[in-house]
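assembly run, all chains below
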Amino acid sequence: MNLDQFKPLTVYTIYIASTPEKVWEALTSAEFSRKYFSGFAVEMEPKLGGSFIVRAPDGSEHIRGEVFEHDPPNRLTVTWNVNWPDLVEKLGTTLVTYEIEQAGEAVRLTMSERHDRPLSDDILSGGRAGWPAILSGLKSLLETGKAPQIKMGPPAQMLAALKAMGIRVP
Amino acid sequence: MSKPSYVYVTYIETSAEKLWQALTDGAFTERYWFGHRIASDWAPGAPYRFTNNGNPTVEGEVITFDPTRRLAYSWHNRKPEAAGEGISRVTFDLEPRGKVVKLTVTHDELGEDGKTLRDISGGWPMVLSNLKSLLETGRTIEIVPPGYSKKDAA
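ok done. output:
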């Protein structure tokens, strides 16, 4: 995989009153992610080339990828491939990078979603709607001990755009 | 070609009323907006102004005042380092979703050279992360971004 071909198409930055180690743990452990990520469990083998799975509450694998950069607690890149039939073939691989930096009393978390080809705003609307909800929940969890339930579903315009490309959506 | 714009979304566990107050009350903004105090009579067409230790920093005119759903104002940065920067527009949309409020901040009508876009892209996540912390925990965070000076936060 040639990293130079991947461009950030969605970036989200959030400051959290926490430590880099705790932010890393919250991003990479099922126990935490279930609380802020609509019940989804992040299951990661903590090593380069390890597997990266996001398991839906019904037990199915929503995302299956691998660990591409592993530098705890500062930088993590995974392939973030949603398991919908033909999706990866049509849209290419999605790379997600988390950068975690100390910023005074806070931690700056920057999420970049990168793709190796141009994609329409409709296709990207899923991530652009989802990341603020997921990472707002993560911040609340680390700062208050609990994450509010934020009801999220795939945006209609994304499902329509995927269908138009011949991708079967649930 | 359309002018650059910037959008930031955050979800805050609070009520639309409290969030509205946090956006329009100077004693509140001073706490999470790095010392920037807002003041206005809050009516469409009325002037508003941010001051920091009494010095004007940003000012403009109220465009939309629709409590507790939408607030919009024009944005004219008066700080010396922003000289020559044009007038842009900031819109806050508040949507209650159960126990949380979805806050969408849109900063548009930005200069075509992209400089203002770069400047404000660093500032909004700090301000809005701090706003969320203040409403959810009662405390703000001392944020010092890597390679960034605190007094630059707008």
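Chain B has three helices and seven strands.

The first strand of chain B starts at residue 6 and ends at 12.

not gonna interpret more than that til we talk
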